Amino acid sequence: MTRFVTKTAVAACLALPVLAPAAASAQTAQGVDEKTGPVSFANIASVRLGPDAQHGGALITETQRSPLTPGESKLGADRVSVPKNDGERTTLGPNYEIDLGPYNAGQSPYPSGIASRSHNVVAALQATDVPTAVAETNYALRDNARSGGSPVDKTVLVLEGARSAVDCTAPKKLSSTTTVTRLWVRGEDNSLSQVAMPAGSATLRMSNLHLGAPGAVPQASHDTTLSDIEVSRVSTFDQLIKQDGWRGGDVTAVAGWRVDVTTHVHDAANVQLQDVHTTMVLGGVSCSIPKNFVALASGSTSGGATVNQPSVPTEVPAGYLGAAAAAPQSDLRVPIGVGLLGGGLVFGALAIWLGRRRVARSRGE
User: How many CB atoms lie within 10 A of CB 312?
Assistant: First the structure.
């Protein structure tokens, strides 16, 4: 079951199960050290609302963490979309939906020929104590405010065969890959077509796409609202959308897809009301090791290669993380202790207020 938690609550949940004394080194006979030892994380999809971490919030799905002894942590099959339930939809808004691979017959959000498939999202600690992670599936971003009778009519972006993977074999032997079989975009002509994704660190930029904001904006017209989208590969640890429990190390490798959306919201008379910023990280993964890490020889163990049950929970719960930004005087915040689900609406209102203030400033008002 998905839980909505604050940063403090996430940290507390992670800390409570740790009852044994801290290990003296990163690798011991009982396994790797929880705080400094080799570790990997894998997340299928998370969304940040607002222009940056200080002016918005984030909806973060379940994050897999590698065990402390050889084994793996794998995302459950019940996560097939973002949002997953009404609570997450309240946070994200009613319009955006990210499909994560599987679909029912006749309800495909993907272009013809893309089969339903299960995702594979795993954070693992190998028998050699080397941490690895992988996230692979098909992604489809839908705008449910669009007209059309079938799910694919509402799809605006598809990453077919997306895969991100990391391997931290040694401090000077890190592996990071982010690939996609095909990328589809609903362009200015309103058709869903293939586009070429640039190689390496290059960014794919597309303008004036028929995509609205994730949430409702007063007086907005979906017909006149357009969005700019940038698709790029995650290249730094800070680009991941993560809970506090997702940590790095002395040496860290990262991978994943980053989708930045800037929605230019207009009213029916085509007058700009505001800009809305949304960032998605699809298939975010990382692995980290200490600077003096040396992998165990193949066939040796650190606590037993056949042990698959971790000594601490290996899934960081899904949740909503709100920023500590000051609210405008007109912003009636829902107290955290009363209702976390209201946080999405609160930060949505804050984003609207900030957007209008920027538009007014640009006009010289």
Answer: 16
